[in-house]
Amino acid sequence: MARTEFRLRVLMEPRHGARYDDILALARATEDAGFDAFFRSDHLLGVDPRDRGYRPTDCWTTLGGLARDTTRVRLGALVGAATFRAPGLLATIVASADEMSGGRVELGLGTGWYEREHDAFGIPFPPTRERFDRFEEQLEIITGLWRLGEGEEFSFHGKHYRVDANATPPRPAQHPHPPVIIGGSGPKRTPAIAARFADEFNGALGGDLRERFAVFARACEAIGRDPDDARRSAVLPVACGRTPAEVERRGAVMGSDLMRANASIGSPAQVTERIAGLREAGADTVYLHIYDIHDLEHIALLGAEVLPHVAVAPVAAGQRG
């Protein structure tokens, strides 16, 4: 496989929610700083479900706005909850945003995991096995609709979803369709589903990243797919500062102990070193997980003093897991 350029991206997960203007300001700061992409989480509640100040926004509504209000960065969700939207509707939403952006959209999708969030908004939350079954059927439908040729019809009869003779599918700008990102830490079904559908496999947070990539590679080989056909990515919560006071202030807003335990909290050199470790483990894409969305100077610092040091060397296929 040809050598793959390393990508450093920004992932927004606001601790207390956000207004669209706040999200747009962060996306434009990401674009100005030179990053490859701006992604957001797909949540209606924050890490603390008791946080009465949390301001929810719909993921794809805001991404549609960003599609028109930015010019260069790629845009997406990491990762969306498959429980939130019917597959045909989601295929249309993403295709619409892709057309609006001129072909800059990516679809990150997972089973959904935050039960309290579903309860709070009246969204059904099936048991784990059923969520995986629905997730797999959704991907069949979404990619099937996107790949449909002129004059063809698409039908799907599954256990949970049914599509009857769709001859007018949504048409994204990208061909054959926007990249599909599948992420998670499950050892069996997640890598198996990703092997079938993913253009990028995200190793999630915590645990042995190298082993997760290896499990994904074996799942690809089991169905005759070249593992290097897909990108591999990692999430890195980050709190970077030039001074100890800046580092402490930015680290204090991280959302949970899990995030802090897996974060890079320190100077630009320390963050750069941590990213190098993720590359060595096989990641060719890293999402910098940002919590304080009003701290635009944080994005500028990462762009000026981290990005130039990690986005210069290509990644050889043989280095990827």
Structure description:
- This protein has 12 helices and 12 strands.
- It has 321 residues and is of the alpha/beta class.
- The chain has one domain (7-319): Luciferase-like domain (TIM Barrel), CATH 3.20.20.30.
- The strands form 2 sheets. An 8-stranded parallel β-barrel has the order 1-2-3-5-8-9-10-12, surrounded by 8 helices. It has a two-stranded antiparallel sheet with strand order 6-7.
- The radius of gyration is 19 Å and the shape is globular.
- Mean pLDDT is 92; it is low at 314-321.
User: SSE string, helix = H, strand = E?
Assistant: EHEHEEHEHHEEEHEHEHHEHEHH
Low-confidence stretches: 314-321
Q: What is the helix fraction of residues, given as a range?
A: 40-55%
Tell me the span between the first and last alpha carbons: 14 Å
Shape: globular
Class from secondary-structure proportions = alpha/beta
Instruction: Please write the CATH class name.
Output: Alpha Beta
Count of DSSP-assigned helices? 12
What do the pLDDT scores average to? 92
Question: Strand sequence of the main sheet, in spatial order?
Answer: 1-2-3-5-8-9-10-12
Any idea of the CATH topology?
Answer: TIM Barrel
Count of DSSP strands: 12
Q: What's the main sheet like?
A: 8 strands, parallel, barrel
CATH superfamily: Luciferase-like domain
> What is the beta-strand fraction?
15-25%
For the record, the count of structural domains works out to: 1
Radius of gyration: 19 Å
Query: Any guess at the CATH architecture?
Result: Alpha-Beta Barrel
